[in-house]
Structure formats: C-alpha cells, structure tokens
Amino acid sequence: MFGFDTTQAKRRQGPRGSFDLWLLVALIGLVSIGVVMVTSSSIAVADSQNLGAFYFLKKHLLFLSLGMIAAGMAMRTELKLLEKHAFPLLAVAFVLLLAVFVPHFGMRINGARRWLNLLVTSFQPVEAVKLILVVYLASYLVRHRENVETRFLGLIKPIMVAGVIVLLLLAQPDFGSATLVIAVTIAMVWLGGARPIFLFIMGLPLMPLLYIAATGESYRMKRLTTFLHPWDHPFDDGFQLTQSLMAIGRGEWGGVGLGSSVLKLSYLPEAHTDFIFAVIGEELGLAGVVLVMGLFALAVGRGLYLGLKGVEVGQRFAGYVAFGVSLMLAMQAIVSVGVNLGALPTKGLTLPLISYGGSSMVLTCAMAGVLLRATFEINRALDARQMTTRVPAAVAAVDANVVVKPREAVIA
Question: Which end of the chain is more exposed for a tag (fewer CB within 10 A), N or C?
C-alpha cells in the first residue's frame, strides 16, 4: 500500500489511509502497455500523413502527462468536496453536452458533433460527463438511500438525469457512449440497493427507444447486420472487422513480434485508437491479449472489492464512486474488446488507458485518480475500525498482566 506522508493523509496516532497497491500496479501496467502499443501502431499512420514517425507518440505522451497531473490532483482531493459539488458539476455536464451544437464552437467530424474547438486542441465533453455522472449518482445514492432501496419513485430522478444525457448523446450522435451511460447507471443503482423488479419496470420503456435509436440511421443498421457476417462484405461495410479478425488471427499464441504487425500498415483502420487491441493480438498474440484483459480484470476487481468494503464501513460515497469508476472502465473495455473480436457492432470507443487519445486519455487518468482516492479513504476507514478493536484489546491485555501484591507481603 502507498500512503501520503502529509497531515492530510496521516495524523499522529490516527487512522492511516493508503492507496491499493494491486490497483495501482494494474493501472500503471495498462498505461505502460498503451505507450508501447501506441508507438508501434501509430508509426505507419503518421508516415502516411507525412507527420513524422513519432508524431502520435509525442502527442500521446503529452496527453498522458496532463492525465498524470489530473490524476495526482484527484488523488489529493477529499471526496467530500466532489460530493458537496455534485449538482454544480452535473450542470457543467449538461452545458458541455449542449455546447457541441453551438456553431463554430462545436466541431463536426465524420458527420458527428462530439468535439469542442479549444483553438489549440479539441475536447470531447462526454469523457468528462462520464466521471461527473458517477459522482452525481454516488451522491444521490448516499442522500436517498432509503428511497432507492424501498420505493419505485426513488429511481425516477437518477434515471431521468441519465435519460437526458443519453438523448443529448444520441443527438450528436454517439450511440456507444449513450449505451455506456445507460449500463453504468443501471448497475450503480442496482448496487445501491434498488430492487431488480423496479429496474426491470423502468427499463421496459427504454427498450423500444434503444431499438429505434439503433435502427433509425442506415449506417447503424449496417453495423448491426454486418458484424454478424463480416466476410460477406470484406471490402466495404465489413472491412474494419475483417481486418481486425485477420490481425488477431495472425498473432496466434505468441504473436508475430513487437513492431512486426502487417495489418497496421494502412490495412487496419484506426489502428492506434479504436482497433489497437487487434494490433496487440497480432504482435503479442494470445499472451498479450490475456495480459491486457488480466490487468483490466485486476483493476476492476480491486475497485469493486474495495467499493464493497467502503459501503460496509460507512464510506458510502467513496464506495459508490469506486463502483461507478470501476464499472465505467470495465464496460468501455468490454465494448472495445468486443468490437475488435467481432462480438459487438462497431462503436467509436477506445480501449481505456491504452488507446491513443487526447481528452479521453486525460479524463480517464483523472477517473483513475478518483478511484485511487476512493480506495485511500476506504482504507483509512478500515484502519480506523481496526484501531477501535485494537485499543480495547490492548487495554484488556495490560489489565490482565497487572500483578497485585498480597496484603501480607506489604511491609508497613
């Protein structure tokens, strides 16, 4: 475990907080693999655009550095501050999602309005919205615990908030992120104690809406049908998936070797972003795939485990935040891997902490920092509980060892 050697984190003769070592190892491992694989997968892309071989690597390291600063700040910020400002943060989230529709400020790329023009760079608001949504839901579950656990109406507000966010995302359009928001919201509310029957009843009206959203546009319908039979359209609608499957198939057990991928050479689209997992499969083989999935499983598993511990010791907000961030990382990773393996239709979601990205990398690092802060406060509460049991036991042991001299042995 790692702890802060400051008055904020460590008080003399008081409970000590510490970051979870295994979680930190998993996160560092994912980031390290990401740097290596972005380097390998982006060289051909940069050369084809005459940008210089290491153009994307340099930008990736820049964004990663900003992400580390954001993570460090999050790790030193008491979660009660986020809990206190959950509503203002939610308002910021709505403003950011609406800002993409403002002319000249919102940017349209590949037919979608998902980015804001910040002059020196672009910013994707949904990356910040993911973290803000987790903070708001955790705050709501703490404040309305009894209503969520016992009443159907207790679920209305969080579901409505998530619904508005989903509608704004679908208007951009960003079907992948919208699905992610719905899944995380339902999972967090369920972990917060909501009855499954309530969630089922509330989910019924969403099903036809999701069906309409998924089939309302021709390109989405093509994605839904093509991923089932990609080899029927290997040179048009199924091109991305067939190239991805060929890359993963070439890797076999041990891979073709780091840097030796063939499919990344202008065959596999978005090799350094959406389809970086396919490059990992080709160059590192099944061993690399298992390593990456194992690190994600370790990070998510530790986050969920410590979240449960947090709820048990009364650190409910920290526990729910740990649940939410872990679920967000897990589901985005599952979708990204599923797309690369042909198990899910193509979505514009990157592999967290590994894929090249600007705002996605910075905000994912910030999210990881918040998760680490949650484990710090949960471990601090666990240490406080252990102190309350250790002190009485120590006093009892001292009392048991006191030797009382017989009265007749006392010389007047």
Answer: C
Does a structural domain hold residue 393? no
Report the half-sphere exposure of 85 (CA within 13 A, side-chain side).
10
Nearest CA-CA partner of 22 in 305, 287, 328, 311 = 305
Same domain, 276 and 361: yes
In degrees, rounded to 5, the angle at the alpha carbon of residue 142 between the alpha carbons of residues 162 and 205 is: 30
Q: Give yes or no: residues 143 and 247 share one domain.
A: no
Mean pLDDT of 321-330: 96
Q: For strands 122-123 and 112-117, give the pairing.
A: antiparallel
What residues pair up with 2 in beta bridges, in sequence order? 19
Report the alpha-carbon distance of residue 402 to residue 331 in Å, rounded: 59
- Residue 388 identity: T
Mind listing the pLDDT tens digit for each residue in 53-64? 899 999 999 999
Domain check: are 135 and 159 in the same one?
Answer: yes
Residue with tokens 């499969």: 281
Q: Following DSSP, what letter does each residue of 132-170 receive, concatenated?
A: HHHHHHHHHHHHTHHHHHH-SGGGHHHHHHHHHHHHHHH
Instruction: Spell out the residues 6+ positions from residue 141 whose beta carbon is closer than 8 angstroms to its own.
Output: 148, 158, 188, 189, 192, 193, 316, 320
3-state secondary structure 264-317: CCCCCCCCCCCCHHHHHHHHHHHHHHHHHHHHHHHHHHHHHHHHHHHHHCCCHH
> Do 204 and 241 belong together in one domain?
no
pTM, rounded to two decimals: 0.87
- How many helices and strands, by DSSP H and E, does the chain display? 15, 3
pLDDT band at 208 (very low <50, low <70, confident <90, very high): confident
Domain that holds residue 173: 79-216
Residue with tokens 């672009």: 122
Query: Looking at residue 7, what is its pLDDT?
Result: 46
pLDDT in tens, 282-307: 999 999 999 999 999 999 999 999 99
pLDDT digits (tens, 9 = 90+) for 343-390: 888 777 889 999 998 889 999 999 999 999 999 999 999 888 888 776
- In angstroms, the CA 184 to CA 188 distance is 6
Do 109 and 209 lie in a common domain? yes
| Count of domains observed in the chain | 2
Position 409 scores a pLDDT of: 43
Does 386 map to a domain? no
- Rounded to the nearest 10 degrees, the angle between the axes of helix 156-171 and helix 175-191 is 170
